[in-house]
Amino acid sequence: MKIDNIFEINEISKIYDKKVALSSLSLCIKRGEMVALIGPSGAGKTTLLNILATVLKPDEGTILLDGITIEKYKGVKALAEKIGIIRQQFDLVDSLPVIHNVLAGRLRDWGFFKSVISLIFPKDKELALKALDRVGIKDKIYERTSNLSGGEQQRVAIARLLVQNPKVILADEPVSSLDPARAEDILSALTIIAKEKGQTLITSLHSVEYARKYFSRIIALREGVVYFDLPALMVTDEDLMELYNLKEVSYVNMNKSDLRYRDILKERKSDE
C-alpha cells in the first residue's frame, strides 16, 4: 500500500552546546509536496534539513521516511534512492569536467571499478547529455567545472539530481549565492523538474518572496519550533511581521536578508 506521507517527523530535538536548535518538532510532509522552510537566522532550518538527510542524528524523536524508520536505511545506495541533496556550496568537484560531476548521481548504481573507469572513459554519457540539455547547459559537458558561473554550477547540481532521480530533494539555501535573475531561473527549473517527476522538494530559503512564488506550502521555524505551517497563498504580511519580530527587532540582530523583508513589508504597509 502506498503511503501518503514521504516524511513523518515525530517530536525531534537537537541541542548544540546547550543551545536548542530544534525542540520537540513534529511534521508530516506528503509525497510530491513543494515545501519552503523560512525563518530568522538560527531558526533551525539547516539543522532540520541535515537531520532529514541523515547528516545529523536527532537527540530525541523519530523520523519515518516512506513509512520506514530512517535508521533502517542501510548503505549509500538505499538512501540515494530516496534522498538527493543540493547545498548552497553546490558540492561539486571543481577540478573535474562537468560530465563527471553530473554522473556522480549514478555512483549508487556503480561498483568501485566502474566508478574508477568512468573517470577516464565516462559511462552513461547520453544520460548526462540528456540531463544537461534539460537544464540548458548541454554545451558545457566537457567544460572544467571551476570555469562555470555560479548559476551554471547550480544547474550542474540539478542535472546530477536528474541522473540520481531520488524520491526527495532537500535543498539548503540553493540560491543564496546567486543574483536575483539567476536565482529565479534556478528555482523555476528546480520546481518544474520536481513537479514533472513527482518528487518531493523541501527547500530552506531566506527569500519569503521566492517561497511564496515557487512553493505550495510554507513552514516557518523560529527558535527551533514551528511558528506557522500554511499553504503559501494563505501566508500574510502580518504572519511574516510576527515571525521576524519586525516591530521590535534591531539592525544589530538582523542579517541583510531579514532587513530586506522588514523594508519590503514596511513599504507594503505604507502603501495600504
Q: Explain this structure to me?
A:
- The chain has 272 residues and is an alpha/beta fold.
- The protein folds into two domains: 5-235, P-loop containing nucleotide triphosphate hydrolases (Rossmann fold, 3-Layer(aba) Sandwich), CATH 3.40.50.300; 241-272, no CATH class.
- The protein has helices at residues 45-52, 75-82, 98-103, 112-118, 125-134, 150-164, 180-197, 208-214, 237-243, 256-271; strands spanning 5-16, 19-30, 34-38, 60-65, 68-69, 83-87, 168-172, 200-204, 217-222, 225-231.
- It has a six-stranded mixed sheet, with helices on both faces. Strands 2-1-4-5 form a four-stranded antiparallel sheet, with helices on one face.
- Strand 1 (5-16) and strand 2 form a beta hairpin.
- The longest helix has 18 residues, at 180-197.
- The protein is globular, with a radius of gyration of 19 Å.
- It starts with a strand and ends with a helix.
- The relative contact order is 0.16.
- Mean pLDDT is 86; it is low at 248-257.
Structural topology:
Layout: E1 5-16, E2 19-30, E3 34-38, H1 45-52, E4 60-65, E5 68-69, H2 75-82, E6 83-87, H3 98-103, H4 112-118, H5 125-134, H6 150-164, E7 168-172, H7 180-197, E8 200-204, H8 208-214, E9 217-222, E10 225-231, H9 237-243, H10 256-271
Parallel strand pairs: 3-8, 3-9, 6-7, 7-8
Antiparallel strand pairs: 1-2, 1-4, 4-5, 9-10
Helix pairs in contact: 5-6, 6-7
> Low-confidence stretches at least 5 residues in length (pLDDT < 50)?
248-257
Strand fraction: 15-25%
The CATH level-2 architecture of the largest domain is identified as: 3-Layer(aba) Sandwich
CATH superfamily of the largest domain: P-loop containing nucleotide triphosphate hydrolases
